[in-house]
Amino acid sequence: MEQVLQHVAQTVEKQLDSELEKLDAMDSGDLEAIRRQRIEEMKKRAKQKQEWLTNGHGEYTEIDGEKEFFVVCNKSENVVCHFYRADTPRCRIVDMHLHTLAKKHVETRFVKLDVERAPFLTGRLKIRVLPTIGLVKENKTKDFIVGFTDLGNCDDFTTEVLEWRIARAEVIEYSGDLLVPPAEARRQRALTVHTKKTIREKHDSDSDLDFSD
Q: Where does the record place the Thioredoxin domain (predicted)?
């Protein structure tokens, strides 16, 4: 395991060195072009964010029924819809987490829909267990999070875990590892850092050895 982690660390360092060499080789004209491109990207992103906010992104809201559900999906590329019922306690747990995620991920519309108001839709989507979270991209249902099975099968799962599970359907922007749950990813990063530190300390120790007579 130590050899594998050492190899990974060396590979990352080589990639960083390569990127730094590319930057060193650029002249002022290249850097200015990159700067202008970055500014244009930031302007485009700001404009897109304003459009999202106008369409109701950034908040977790309740929609009235099936008709509004289809309107929402037509207006927004990415939609997270919580199908709930007021007398289901676990639905309130989901509400708490989605309130937080809606503010963080303005690129996605977060809504909730009472199944009592949408019998046709819930039947069509075969929703049998509550809570169920529908993950919609480009007007097509990509995935469902049914109950808490995918969230650790417990009521006290973290917002971070739900965020990771939603991200696996590619309906929110996510910079973490989609293959590994957040807690496990942190453990792996901590182990990698510890191994790199140990290797570095061993290297420094070896360099300090004096072989002179």
A: 67-148
* d(C-alpha 145, C-alpha 94), whole Å: 11
Distance (Å, whole) CA 63 – CA 102: 15
Comparing 100 with 37, which gets the higher pLDDT? 100
* CA 143 – CA 137 distance, rounded (Å): 9
Bigger pLDDT: 126 vs 193: 126
Candidates 53, 47, 108; CA nearest to 82 is 108
Contact criterion met (CB below 8 Å) for 204 and 17: no
- φ, ψ of residue 159 to 5 degrees: the values are -60, -35
Hey, what long-range contacts does 172-181 have (CB within 8 A, 24 or more apart)?
172/78, 172/80, 172/101, 172/105, 172/107, 172/108, 173/105, 173/107
Q: What is the pTM of this model?
A: 0.73
Distance CA(16)–CA(157), nearest Å, equals 36
